Amino acid sequence: MKIADVPQDRGISEDVTVVSYAVAEDGRYVKVGSRGWEPVNVANGLAWEQVEQIICETVVEIENGTRSTLAYHMVVHQMDAALLAHYTGFFKWRVKRHLRPGVFGRLKPAVKEKYASLFHLSIAELEQVPALPQRGMLL
């Protein structure tokens, strides 16, 4: 596509420009800033709706007492147990065990600190779920 044809549709990234490549008048490829493209914006919007749904489901599980607050922080950072285990150095089975509220409540401060530092939180913040904004406003 030519430089003039690079789409400039605003999307979820708002004023952030994304690098695209276009053909200059001399036939060479050049980097061109783009604010977005409608099909990409729609796909990103759908993906973020799904992330929001998963977060809301996790909050309900925490409120019902079936998951620990660690689960909330894990899904907000778009991690699963395997990735969280990789970043913390814990075994995956151990991370899954820590997702149970009773087990998480009995963890030693050093273990909670490892999770908290990964998420750039204090232990007190790790043990809580922040108030969620209205649907459609998450993340």
Question: Key terms for this structure?
Answer:
139 residues, mainly alpha, 434 Repressor (Amino-terminal Domain), 2 domains, two-stranded antiparallel sheet
User: Count the strands?
Assistant: 2
In the CATH hierarchy, the third-tier topology of the largest domain is known as 434 Repressor (Amino-terminal Domain)
C-alpha Rg, in Å?
A: 21 Å
Q: How many independent structural domains?
A: 2
Q: CATH class of the largest domain, please?
A: Mainly Alpha
Low-confidence stretches at least 5 residues in length (pLDDT < 50)?
none
Class by SSE composition: mainly alpha
User: In one word, what is the shape?
Assistant: elongated
**Helix proportion range:** 40-55%
Order of helices and strands: EEHHHHHHH
Question: Quaternary state, please?
Answer: single chain
Note down, in words, how this protein is organized:
It is elongated, with a radius of gyration of 21 Å. The model has no long low-confidence stretch (mean pLDDT 87). The two termini are 33 Å apart. The chain is mainly alpha-helical and 139 residues long. Helix 1 runs antiparallel to helix 2 and helix 3 crosses helix 4 (92-98). A two-stranded antiparallel ribbon has the order 1-2. It has seven helices and two strands.
In short:
This protein has 139 residues and is mainly α. The protein contains 7 helices and 2 strands; from the N terminus they run E-E-H-H-H-H-H-H-H.
